[in-house]
């Protein structure tokens, strides 16, 4: 079987570019493993489960975070074909990874668990693929499971995709049954890439990573012309020019080749160490006689959740900045800007696509770059209109404007929940408690229902997903997308220690939930802050109005220990003296909040495990 690497360019008509879209735990990575084995690009000794999941976090959690591309040789009816497969993440927080993978493909394998049916997040990715005019190949996986019901779910998929139930392929990625037939179907159905081989070179950057020894490694999909080693290229958005040191394919380890032609997917290395030189979505062209029109890039991802990241040790601030620079190259959806906090020192305000994205990013920074971090409670972006007509965009509670506010707008989302019909009542009760409005309801089959709600994003980002799972015994699936904004009665709750505001604990909440937040934080801090020599009041306040209070009692030295008998006035004199000392200490004393207390108090709103 020919592998084409290090030979001539592969004709576009013999190339098939496709990706796999599926929900978490529906078997994407296992199917990718079987394809790697069947095509012989990984020998039996080097094979391991979840081969394309390179990160420790991915392997531990059993989820895909990064889209990975791999080139596979295949043969159909005696004809050698090259398949480029991209394994994509399934979680809604990594939809941006999926959207970039879809741009580099002409077809998508829709993989659905034959025991669970289609899930909300898969549905969202399927619609993305349909918008991009990709050829959809529906596949039912795990048909070897005792609980599998392929006939029922084939009907459900055919109803959504618009095909016949018999056209839905049935495979078992675990045993390898039906995978060969699937690859044959990909070759037959997915169209070959289209492009002009004699036109000026144009290639789309769909991913890039930072290698300590080789600098930035850029992953590209060639649309027109060809990219060869030692030629000079230009990045069309920045105008930066570089010499290509190496061009190659990923099969599944990087292999240098003599170049990439129309429709091919591979990598290039220019030796550049500056991570800002290789922007995802940019067009690469030749420096001499290059293209004038760039390719349509990706729409910039808009962060939906903001959180502050601060190093526990302030001297690690430069390391955190460098780590975020390198991580942003690998994760284009991450945004950040410097900020300072009176309580936590120097850090960064980071924008994420969701809570899992926040959790994974923090985990990667701590593991890959050896940092110790504190993250503040996540919050969303608010727009505040003052009475004098000025507008403020608030991503951090400390930016909340003082003065008279006319209107406050919060972001809202369209939520899609798919669950067994037995749980409709529990789901509706939960959504209404989170200020949700029902937009519609459809039965996908006799016992599965799709509910559509409009809900404030601020209500979803804390514990909504956990509550949904617990009320439906884990059967419900959730997907959400932004859908504008709405006017809301929001207030800023400040936490005061001895009359001084601690900015790290401030939060913007709905008026109805302000008291609950204030009480919870005050009670929690009373348990976490060590007792001082003087009494410390902890207050939660909205503006000048205190809504909750707890008190940390003072540590009292027993000044009466030496009084064994004698007149009561002696004891009273000693107690009065102590009281005066405490009063003076309270005026000059400052409450030091230990780092552990910050971490523990802020973890109340941290994500609780993976979705």
Automatic annotation (TrEMBL):
Keywords, sorted A to Z: Cell membrane, Elongation factor, GTP-binding, Hydrolase, Membrane, Nucleotide-binding, Protein biosynthesis
EC number per UniProt: 3.6.5.n1
PROSITE patterns membership: G_TR_1, G_TR_2
Binding site for GTP: 25-30, 141-144
Protein family: Belongs to the TRAFAC class translation factor GTPase superfamily. Classic translation factor GTPase family. LepA subfamily.
Function recorded in the entry: Required for accurate and efficient protein synthesis under certain stress conditions. May act as a fidelity factor of the translation reaction, by catalyzing a one-codon backward translocation of tRNAs on improperly translocated ribosomes. Back-translocation proceeds from a post-translocation (POST) complex to a pre-translocation (PRE) complex, thus giving elongation factor G a second chance to translocate the tRNAs correctly. Binds to ribosomes in a GTP-dependent manner.
HAMAP family: LepA
Protein name: Elongation factor 4
Source organism: Lentzea cavernae
């Amino acid at each position: 079987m020919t592998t084409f690497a290090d030979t001539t360019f592969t004709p576009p008509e013999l190339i098939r570019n496709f990706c796999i879209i599926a929900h978490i735990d529906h078997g994407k990575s296992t199917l990718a493993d079987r394809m790697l084995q069947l095509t012989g690009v990984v020998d039996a000794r080097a094979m391991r489960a979840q081969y394309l999941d390179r990160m420790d976090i991915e392997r531990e959690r059993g989820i895909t975070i990064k889209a990975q591309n791999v080139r596979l040789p295949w043969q159909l009816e005696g004809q050698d074909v090259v398949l480029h497969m991209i394994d994509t993440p399934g979680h809604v927080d990594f939809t941006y990874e999926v959207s970039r993978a879809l741009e580099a493909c002409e077809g998508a394998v829709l993989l659905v668990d034959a025991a669970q049916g289609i899930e909300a997040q898969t549905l969202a990715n399927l619609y993305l693929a349909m918008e991009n005019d990709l050829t959809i190949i529906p596949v039912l996986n795990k048909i070897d499971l005792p609980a599998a019901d392929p006939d029922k779910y084939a009907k459900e998929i055919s109803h959504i995709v618009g095909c016949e139930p018999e056209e839905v392929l049935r495979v078992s990625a675990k045993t390898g049954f039906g995978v060969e037939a699937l690859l044959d179907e990909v070759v037959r159905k997915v169209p070959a890439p289209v492009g002009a081989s004699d036109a000026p070179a144009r290639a789309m950057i769909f991913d890039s990573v930072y290698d300590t020894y080789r600098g930035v490694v850029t992953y590209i999909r060639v649309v027109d012309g060809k990219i060869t080693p030692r030629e000079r290229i230009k990045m069309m958005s920045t105008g930066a020019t570089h010499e290509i040191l190496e061009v190659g394919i990923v099969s599944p380890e990087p292999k240098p080749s003599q170049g990439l032609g129309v429709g091919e997917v591979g990598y290039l290395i220019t030796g550049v160490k500056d991570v800002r030189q290789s922007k995802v979505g940019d067009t690469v062209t030749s420096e001499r006689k290059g293209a004038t029109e760039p390719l349509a890039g990706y729409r910039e991802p808009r962060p939906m959740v903001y959180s502050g990241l601060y190093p526990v040790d302030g001297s690690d601030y430069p390391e955190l900045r460098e780590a975020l620079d390198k991580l942003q190259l690998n994760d284009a959806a991450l945004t950040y800007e410097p900020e300072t906090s009176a309580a936590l020192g120097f850090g960064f305000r980071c924008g994420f696509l969701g809570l899992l994205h926040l959790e994974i990013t923090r985990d990667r920074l701590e593991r890959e770059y050896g940092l110790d971090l504190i993250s503040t409670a996540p919050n969303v972006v608010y727009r505040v209109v003052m009475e004098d007509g000025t507008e403020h965009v608030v991503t951090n509670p400390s930016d909340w404007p003082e003065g008279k506010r006319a209107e406050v707008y919060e972001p809202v989302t369209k939520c899609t929940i798919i669950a067994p019909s037995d749980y409709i009542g529990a789901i509706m009760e939960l959504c209404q408690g989170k200020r949700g409005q029902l937009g519609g309801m459809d039965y996908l089959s006799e016992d599965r229902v799709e509910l559509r709600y409009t809900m404030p994003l601020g209500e979803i980002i804390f514990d909504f997903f956990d509550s949904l799972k617990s009320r439906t015994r884990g059967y419900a699936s959730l997907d959400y997308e932004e859908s504008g904004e709405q006017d809301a009665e929001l207030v800023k709750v400040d936490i005061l220690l001895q009359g001084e505001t601690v900015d790290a604990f401030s939060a913007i909440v709905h008026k109805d939930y302000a008291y609950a937040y204030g009480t919870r934080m005050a009670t929690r801090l009373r348990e976490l802050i060590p007792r001082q020599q003087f009494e410390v009041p902890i207050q939660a306040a909205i503006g000048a109005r205190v809504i909750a209070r707890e008190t940390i009692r003072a540590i009292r030295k027993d000044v009466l220990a030496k009084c064994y008998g004698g007149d009561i006035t002696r004891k009273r004199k000693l107690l009065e003296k102590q009281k005066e000392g405490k009063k003076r200490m309270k005026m000059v004393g400052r409450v030091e909040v230990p780092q552990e207390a910050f971490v523990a108090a802020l973890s109340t709103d941290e994500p609780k495990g993976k979705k």
